[in-house]
Amino acid sequence: MSYGQLTPTRETTSEPIPVSDIDRLCALLGDEWGPDWEPGTDIDMETEFPELAAMAYGDAGGLSVLDEIAPGLELAACLSGIDIHELSGFDQIIVLRAHQRMASHHQARMYGAMAAVTKTFEDDAQEPDIGFHSAAEDAAAEIGTALRLTRRAADSELGFALNLQRRLPRVHMMLKSGVIDQRRARCIDDSTTHLSIAVARDVVERIAEAAPELTTGQLRARIKKLCIKTDPDDSKIRHDRAVTDRRLVMEPTFDGTANLLGLDLPTADATRAANRINTIAKSLRRHGETRSMDQLRSDVFLDLLTGTNHYPIRGRGTVHVTVDLDTLTGLTEHPGELAGYGPVISDIARQIAAESPDAEWRWTVTDTETGTPITNGITSTRPTAQMRRNIETRDRACVFPGCRMPAVESDLDHRVAVADGGPTSEHNLAPLCKFHHILKHHGWTIEKLNNGAYQWTSPLGHTYTRRGPP
Q: 317: helix, coil or strand?
């Protein structure tokens, strides 16, 4: 087989730029190249691949042009001629992002092929599906055998493929265009599977713009919040049903240890218990314990259950919930936000805002329309710095992009160091978890934007924005 070449059209001494396996690319991506492609044909580079031509002639200002090329034949051709080891760190990140978009594109096409196989079995079926056999099962068996998947894996992959095609076509298009990756697409599918098709598609439309910038954890929390807000009654029914099924499970491990799990526990009580364990562990650490925090939390957990150690330290955890004013007064059923957990149904938000048991509860009332904090309070008589409370209310979590560590568990960092003249003010302070606090001092810089977002610059020179909580 002969291969095509990308041939510059302007007068130049440059040799034609070879593109390896161009015929194969065109065969794989034929519907995007067009039906008239013939193997061995020379390509007018400036006409057919303008972005690649700009790179070849040096008109595009480096590889940043790759960010503007949609996944498909042209981007694949560009990437095939790049030796990543010859690039600067800045350009390597650009190429990395381009490869991820191409991977998403091909995964979307693969899932489209799986759905097509299912459609073939459905069209060829001689009789309607019966209880123990269906065209989807035939397709899963064929696909599983072809791709060497277990039966469970084949069912899972095909189920996801059919959901993308028939239930969430917008998500499939986002994956195919490289806007989101497979992890985010699966997260959206998993988080909306309990919704009707109409509601699921509405939720997708409302998170589509933000989805590319969110981690899967943030995306899952955003969808959960939308689900609660869209159908609070259904969310409460599902919550109450899950709590009814609460249980304790002990699992043996391969290494001879055991996992002890409490499943579907009431959110407020579970958060209070976890925070009490955390508070005791921190106190022990401050008093000279050499065990790690994970070890201390595990040991305190067992000691409290077995009664083998009575701690002199009064372990009182802090639980912080954010709720809008209309929900607090019962006028609406909007979800609240429980620090360290995520969105909660309105009943739980009101319960936490109203209670003052032994544990210390914090609450924040926000404006229903803008989300701006109106007031906050604390049921403990122990004094708390107003500045810290205001910052925790404003930012809610560590301000590094993608981090969900609650602000109440984070350090307050001076964005501009005191030694450099930075004031101790709410504007100059931001919550950073231990890891990202250390990371900030290893080549990362942070700037607060006028809209309240934080812009980080990496050691390689790329910028990443952490927007405020929804």
A: coil
- Give me the pLDDT at residue 278, please: 87
Q: Would you list the DSSP string of 208-241?
A: TTTGGGS-HHHHHHHHHHHHHHH-HHHHHHHHHH
* Burial per residue of 206-215, b for 16 or more beta-carbon CB atoms within 10 angstroms, e otherwise: ebbeebeebe
Q: How far apart are CA 397 and CA 404, in angstroms?
A: 6
Q: What is the DSSP letter of 258?
A: E
Q: How far apart are CA 369 and CA 414, in angstroms?
A: 31
Q: How far apart are CA 324 and CA 365, in angstroms?
A: 5
* Three-class DSSP category at 433: coil
CB distance 289 to 296 below 8 Å: yes
Q: Choose among 401, 404, 433: nearest CA to 212.
A: 401
Determine the Cα–Cα distance for residues 435 and 287; give it in Å rounded to an integer. Answer: 22
Q: Is the distance from CB of 345 to CB of 362 less than 8 angstroms?
A: no
Contact status, residue 303 vs residue 288, Cβ threshold 8 Å: no
Separation CA 390–CA 378 (nearest Å): 12
Largest CA distance in the chain: 85
Give the SS3 label for residue 32.
Answer: helix
The encoded tokens of residue 81 equal: 């001629």
The lowest-confidence range among 148-157, 351-360, 376-385 is: 376-385
Amino acid at 35: P
Report the SS3 class of residue 336: strand
E strand intervals along 339-405 = 342-344, 360-366, 373-378
- Around Cβ 439, how many Cβ atoms within 10 Å? 16
Encoded tokens for 243: 């709590």
Three-state DSSP state, 6: strand
Residue recorded with tokens 């028939």: 166
Residue 324 β-bridge partners: 366
Q: How far apart are CA 201 and CA 440, in angstroms?
A: 39
Q: At what angle do helices 293-306 and 267-286 cross, to 10 degrees?
A: 120
Q: Which residue has the tokens 């409490």?
A: 262
Q: Give the tokens for residue 258.
A: 């055991």
Could you report the per-residue pLDDT of 318-373, keeping only the tens digit for each? 667 777 766 766 667 778 777 777 788 777 777 766 664 444 555 566 666 666 66
The DSSP call for residue 165 is I
